[in-house]
Amino acid sequence: MTVPWVVKYRPRTLDEVENQEDVKDELRGWIESWLKGKPTTNAVLLYGPPGTGKTTLALALANSYGLELIEMNASDSRNLSSIRGVAERASITGSLFGEKGKLIFLDEVDGIQPKQDYGAISAMLEVLKNTKFPVIMAANDPWNPNLRDLRNAVKMIEVKRLGKIALRRLLKRICTNEKVKCEDKAIDALIEASDGDARYSINFLQSIAEGYGEVTEKLVSELVKRKERELDPFETIRNVFWARFGWQAKQAVSNSQVEYDLLMRWISENIPVQYDSIYDVWRAYDALARASIFLTRAKLSSWDMLSYTFDLMGPGVAMAEIGKKSQTWKAKWKKYQFPTLVQQLYRSKKTREIRDEIIGKIGRKLHSSSSKVYNDVFPLFVVIASADKESIQKSLGLTQEEIDFMESIQGSQVSEETRERSAGTSRSSSTRSSTRSSRTRKS
Ligand SMILES: Nc1ncnc2c1ncn2[C@@H]1O[C@H](COP(=O)(O)OP(=O)(O)OP(=O)(O)O)[C@@H](O)[C@H]1O
């Protein structure tokens, strides 16, 4: 069986890795800080499009520094014990194979589904906190709100698409080694189609070379399908806001790797960042609110409606800027923001969980609904609990965490929570309708 060229020509050391000079420098600095016993950070997260060398960089880093790579695909073995097991295995094998240093590699961390893979993210955070070895992780899309704690616990390093010069060098080297006749224009066409993905271009090179004995421009243009490119959230919203024509904005939202509901939040957050005129902002939110209505309809009744959602959240938002009609219009560069609503809700998730647990306990004693307890009883309990702590704690059977929570909140903080709650429902019309739609779906 022939060895796949992506494996045969995978760089073994950092020096052999094409491009990615900044990434290599960052990795060298980080691993050397570990070797000196003063790690700058326990873990790094390499993120970027597929086939750009994240896995290769982890392997090359281990080889270049003589480290043993303890590898695991985070989205395969999705549970707490197997993730913990990696760290444990790393320390156990130390005694079996001597003093060789180790590098723990967790691939595809964005494949973890917090609901199904319960506890996986907290297990990873635990590993990151207590690890005795450097941890390197890889992901294509690290912007999922569920990965927020993980992002905060690591150093994020972006791995960009490979440049044309580097890809050309790589493909030509393979052709020379394999003694395959390869037209220069064929290589250019392969590079064009692969959009910076080395794996894609090498695999196609091999399949044409093995199937036809040579690689010509004609064969490439006949056989290679242009790679469907998925856009990350920042690229998606930039392409929407910078679109001059409706079809460009529609393409951006259709090819986005971000899930529809979340993409609406990204757009919603960044409309006032991009547009200066209040009228443009108003028109854009109007389009987004309508997109949200169609998305709910699509999910509840017919997926055909999804096309209208794309029309409204892509072209609808993009064409809200009246200035685009002018010949002299130029796209304005803006620093886009991560959706704050998602951040806020995530940050207050734990607090809300504890509060709801206490409310549930009070509700069971009083035979009242959670909303009644939340609105009418809970604020009083906070006040009473500070006066008659022990008996209330005893009668409700509060845990230590809940006792700490009750002690930590005073009247002012309760109202702050209430404000936060109402902030979650009084944002833009679009967000309001998308929150409403998700509630409708749940029910
Ligand atoms: N910078 C590079 N220099 C040389 N070869 C590369 C480079 N990047 C990728 N390759 C080639 O492409 C193949 C695939 O790369 P790799 O598996 O590292 O990509 P990845 O970014 O981890 O992809 P994914 O996100 O899909 O896991 C490698 O086996 C190697 O042959």
Q: What's this, in brief?
A:
This protein is of the alpha/beta class. The protein contains 22 helices and seven strands. The site of adenosine-5'-triphosphate has 22 residues, from helix 3 and helix 9.
Describe the structure.
This protein is globular. The protein has 443 residues and is an alpha/beta fold. Helix content is 61%, strand content 7%. It has three domains: 5-158, P-loop containing nucleotide triphosphate hydrolases (Rossmann fold); 164-223, Orthogonal Bundle (Helicase, Ruva Protein, domain 3), CATH 1.10.8; 233-338. α11 (233-241) packs antiparallel against α12. The protein has 22 helices and seven strands. The chain has a five-stranded parallel sheet with strand order 2-3-4-1-5, sandwiched between helices. It has helices at 5-8, 21-35, 54-64, 80-96, 120-130, 148-153, 164-178, 184-194, 198-212, 217-223, 233-241, 246-254, 260-274, 278-300, 306-318, 340-347, 349-366, 370-387, 389-396, 400-408, 411-425, 429-442; strands at residues 43-47, 68-73, 102-107, 135-139, 155-158, 181-182, 214-215. One of its GO terms (biological process) is DNA replication. It holds the Pfam family RCF1-5-like_lid. Heteromultimer composed of small subunits (RfcS) and large subunits (RfcL). This is Replication factor C large subunit. Keywords: ATP-binding, DNA replication, Nucleotide-binding.
